[in-house]
Specification:
2 copies of one chain form a homodimer. Chain A contains 11 helices and 16 strands. Chain A is α/β, with parallel strands linked by helices.
Amino acid sequence: MASNKYCVIMAGGIGSRFWPKSRQSMPKQFLDILGTGKSFIRHTFERFEKIVPAENFLVVTNRKYKDLVLEHLPELAPEQVLCEPVGRNTAPCIAYAAYSLLKRDPEAEMIVTPSDHLILDEDDFRAVISECLEFATQNDALMTVGIKPTRPDTGYGYIQVSDAQPISKVKCFTEKPDLQLAQTFLQCGEFYWNSGIFVWKARTIAEAFEKYLPDHHLLFSGLMNALGTDAEQNIVEMVFAECRAISIDYGIMEKADNVYVRCGHFGWSDLGTWGSVYQHSRKDRYANAIPEEGCYLYDTRSSIVSLPKGKIAVISGLKEYIVVDTDDVLMICPRAEEQSIKKFIDEVKYNNGDKHI
Amino acid sequence: MASNKYCVIMAGGIGSRFWPKSRQSMPKQFLDILGTGKSFIRHTFERFEKIVPAENFLVVTNRKYKDLVLEHLPELAPEQVLCEPVGRNTAPCIAYAAYSLLKRDPEAEMIVTPSDHLILDEDDFRAVISECLEFATQNDALMTVGIKPTRPDTGYGYIQVSDAQPISKVKCFTEKPDLQLAQTFLQCGEFYWNSGIFVWKARTIAEAFEKYLPDHHLLFSGLMNALGTDAEQNIVEMVFAECRAISIDYGIMEKADNVYVRCGHFGWSDLGTWGSVYQHSRKDRYANAIPEEGCYLYDTRSSIVSLPKGKIAVISGLKEYIVVDTDDVLMICPRAEEQSIKKFIDEVKYNNGDKHI
């Protein structure tokens, strides 16, 4: 019997916070920033491959990354890569995947996952996802996965739960809080990080689109007849041109009344910044996260260094720095200044155009 | 009438203090570290070309740099490049050139110059050299060029003069002094930096070799018959294998009694360290010496940056650093630590062999 379980990998991001290692032509999900030997998207695929057959994956990405996706996931057929002509945040991305699955399998159960997160304990994680699939199927629920916070992180969204059950109804979503609020959340114990991983039946999320984002429902359900035909790309083009950019959290999860969260502790990070990569990297005895070979450090502490393959670096006298070297761009920046990378990119772009971006 | 004036360019150095920009395969004299558009050896050649005809130049270098010399100085014929099989300091290098010139022209007047120094006021410099040539010819003198010191530099040798004449008999040579002594020298006014530029008749220096370095005299005068024959390279090989490494300063200049110095102010530096390159580079308003293009600095002061052509750098939060990026090595080091470069090279060599050296 064919599986009703599907996995939708969202892979449209450009990961500019990892510039100059990530580029418009090579975003974070296709990189191996931790030096594991595999790209993030490859890890994501292999993580779910044990519960979802390869032919039941969909990857939603920008059309310019289609070839990269197929290169990293050669198990997929080209029609398993859904191409957005333009990024419109998560709601349109999920709608495109959900209505595609509905057409193929009205009973589809759907896991939605980012393509570039870190999960350390994959067995625990899959157990959580399996529970979510069971609960979502039996209860027509919109499930989200929450992470027990370990620090007052101001870079994440938070989910407040209604009770202490493993699967709890969601009381409230809060976008990135300030430090004081994040500290309160951490102490309170009712708040979990929003991982951006969702589980639901395709039909349940389609009903939610109809109710909470009716414009998107109209556009994407109208697309269903064209799916899999020669007309698909043209109509997708029009639909994305028309549709409003909005996140699934803001557009549906914060409004619907059948939203549940399954909380887990499986060593999760969105690895959204060099700082979080530093946190999750193996360090030398002076707390430096450096490549296994070719890094000669003197009087250097708590720094992270990334080098092109085969290159060596001799670094003296840096404390808490990010050093990222690539073939055409060198970046040296204090770890505390990593939020400036966007400014750096803007300035380089202003002077040099897209050449180094 | 053919000119009796000859210029001997000493170009055997490996310039390890400019690693990783200088390499065993591409020493400093072949680089354009200041970004002038010409290598040091090219500048040296052009500086003397106005007083010495091209066919009267000799370059003494390690045999592995012969092709590089001819590439940078296409005006020279291959036989104008004298190849040392191994570096033996300046005395053997000068002996090889002096006896070669003697054989060709017993009346040869000889300028000896390093290949990798900076001279800002070339007209003044040539006037000084012309005076030296005249004095050396008329007086059978060993002339050296002294530089009026502008700071208590501990990296240079010093020459004490006997009187305040433009051309003065040398009282004493002192190797690199400590800071206190250097300060005394600077205040005293009788001390000049030893530029390592010499002027003499080939016959005068040969007589000095005979008297003060008789072993070298025997070896190199014995070589004269073979010069210009097929046997030259084999005999040169034996001579250099035999002869003791010694500097011309220590072996002759400190001992001879016909040593004179002509002092000048023509903006000289041996550019022996990144620090001296920094001193002589054009700076931005935050005192950074950076390439004309492609350097984006934030909160960065008094630093020197060198990049491969076409590469850009974004640097934040460095004060008084040296950043040297090349295709296969990146070095980041406080300016005050530049004497550590030798240690860096040793350690890289120990771990990686000659690959990046």
